[in-house]
Structures are given as structure tokens and as C-alpha cells.
Amino acid sequence: MSIYKGSASTLLHSTGASNSMILKAIEFAVQAHAGQYRKITRIPYIFHPLQVADILTECRCNEEVITAGILHDTVEDAPVSLEEIRENFGNDVAALVEAASEPDKAVSWEERKHHTLSALKTAPMDVLLLSCADKLDNIRSIQKDSARLGELIWSQFNRGKEKQAWYYHNLASIFREKADGEPGNSLFESFSGDVHLVFPAREYAARQFV
């Protein structure tokens, strides 16, 4: 637990937080994600939301957005209800976590990704920043694992490289449209750059999945 408390202290210092909301969120997320690991590696899953929170801290996001970054996968990927988030962290954080969560996992991957893309087109800036930080950490993980495993990496995903390229390029396009003059501009640009490193534009053909 000490390594997580160290991360909590760093985030609290970076944000200048006057209360223990971020520390409480880290402790909550550590318990929620206990026993979960990142794809391909044996890295504990909790390091992903901590990385997301760190990215949001660098963007000077407010405490509610950073807290939501720590908690963003607890409802979708852990046995946690949105009501628990609301009771422990308030309506604003709960609304952000809800916005970051995919709909029913029973529907197809394509339906879920179309839903995410559609929702982001009209999402407020806090949701865009949260989503972009999440996706940026994901694409960076893919980049590292791809350098180590090559094309074998794509067998670990629900869909292969072509559909992942479709999804990430569409995300980058939406973020670029929202970026101009906004405080998260550098974040959106970083995401777009990393997407093009993993999925070079010359290999990408936009298409709609039926």
C-alpha cells in the first residue's frame, strides 16, 4: 500500500489539494481494482488510473476531474455502483465517471465504440480532458507493448489492429476539433501524435462498421 500512498502524496502536493479527496479516491480505487492487471503485462491495474490522474494534474485540471480520473474505471470494470461514487465523492465526480463509462458490455464492441465517439462530439471540456487522458495512457501502453511484442499484441484485444486504428483515429479527430484555443490543447495534440505513431495515417483507411 505504501507505493500507492506515495502516489497519493505526489498528487496531493501537485494539485495543492486542501482536503483528502484525492487520497480517498486512490484508496477507494486500489480496493476496487484489487487483483486486476493491465492487458498483456502483470502490472497492477491501479497504475493506469494513477497515470490518468497524473496526466490530468499536468493539465492543471481541478480536483473533481483528477478524482474522476482515479475512479474512471471503477464502475465499468469493478463491482462498484455509480451511487457509491456519488455518496463518497459527490455529484460532479459521479457525473464524470458516468460519462467515462461505456454502456452495457453485452452490446458489441462496435456499438460501444460508436456510442463513445458520438457522446464525445457533444461532451463538455472536463469530460473531453478525462477521456483524452484515459486514451492517452492506453495508446502509450500499446506503443510500449507493440515495440516489445510486434504484431502479436493485437491478439490480446477484443478487436484487431484495423478496428483499433479506426477507433483511435476517430478519437484523435474529435479531440483535434475541440482543441483549438482550449486549455487541454497540448493534451489533445499529444494524443493525436501518439495515435499517428502507432497507426500511421498511410496505413489507415476510415470506414464505418456495420
Automatic annotation (TrEMBL):
Entry annotated with the keyword Iron: no
Domain of life: Bacteria
Keywords of this entry: Hydrolase, Transferase
InterPro entries the UniProt entry points to: HD/PDEase_dom (IPR003607), MESH1 (IPR052194)
GO MF assignments: GTP diphosphokinase activity; guanosine-3',5'-bis(diphosphate) 3'-diphosphatase activity
Residue stretches making up the HD/PDEase domain: 41-148
The protein's Enzyme Commission number: 2.7.6.5, 3.1.7.2
Protein name: GTP pyrophosphokinase / guanosine-3',5'-bis(Diphosphate) 3'-pyrophosphohydrolase
